[in-house]
Amino acid sequence: MDPQRLRALLEDVQAGRATVDQSMSALRDLPFRALDFAHVDTHRHLRTGFPEVVLGQGKTPRQIAAILNELAAGGATVFATRVSPEVAALVVPAVPGARYLATPHIVAVGETPPPDRGRGVIAVLSAGTSDVPVAEEAAVTAELSGNRVERIYDVGVAGLHRLLAHRETVAAAEIVIVVAGMEGALPSVVGGLFARPVIAVPTSVGYGASLGGIAALLGMLNSCAAGVAVVNIDNGFGAGRLAAMLNRARGDGAGVRPAESSQEEPGAR
């Protein structure tokens, strides 16, 4: 359930606009909704500030559509990753409000939220054009988390002048996601040039000794630049969510936080 929707429900009860029974009916699906093939985590938005995301890979179109419909009923924008065009052609008509984003292979349901949850811009860089699908998965994930995103693609180390042409944009970003395959050198370069945290995403782009992204992964893990964190191979979604959480504006109300102590500090009112 969307935290804002839950807050509105509780305020209606407090103000006498809704009964306790009506509220109980609205909350009946917490903390999960059991389907024949899945336990849909309808409570995740309240715990973490973001709804459950569906991994489309390995699921049938019927399963993806059913899970998305359950999640979307909570009122938030939800999506599925790793959805092929063939599967998306069957999922989208079965889910009201769904749309397919072909480059990142994402099926999204609902409007993109306003970019007002982050402190600043998240810059997403790709080393090559072949890395763009993973970079777009990261960028769209960050946008669906309510962040402003700047895309800078095809600026790999084979031509560093391309990166330097965008140095003002990168320097102004709050967090930088860097997506690269082959030898995976670009995150180290960015980490050495800019005073910004870098989330490095190795991709499986490459051939021979790239070993399906393992060479890029190891290169990024062995970076000599400080402030570089690494996610798994092709994990654009993970990078987008991590960036969104790090960029979260203080007091945005996302997720449920532990109750603060009631003991007042000296001078507190």
Q: Could you describe the 3D structure shown?
A:
- This protein has about 270 residues and is an alpha/beta fold.
- The protein is built from 11 helices and 11 strands.
- About 40% of the residues are buried.
- The protein starts with a helix and ends in a 23-residue tail after the last helix.
- Helix 4 (about 60-70) links the parallel strand 3 (about 55) and strand 4 (about 80).
- The model is unreliable at about 255-269 (pLDDT under 50).
- Strands 8-7-9-10-11 form a 5-stranded parallel sheet, with helices on both faces. It has a 4-stranded mixed sheet with strand order 3-4-6-5, covered by helices on one side.
- The chain has 2 domains: about 5-110, no CATH class; about 120-245, Rossmann fold.
- The longest helix is centred in the N-terminal third of the chain and has 13 residues, at about 5-15.
- Helix 6 (about 130-145) runs parallel beside helix 11 (about 235-245).
- It has helices at about 5-15, 20-25, 45-50, 60-70, 85-90, 130-145, 160-165, 165-170, 185-195, 215-220, 235-245, and strands at about 35, 40, 55, 80, 100, 105-110, 120-125, 150, 175-180, 200, 230.
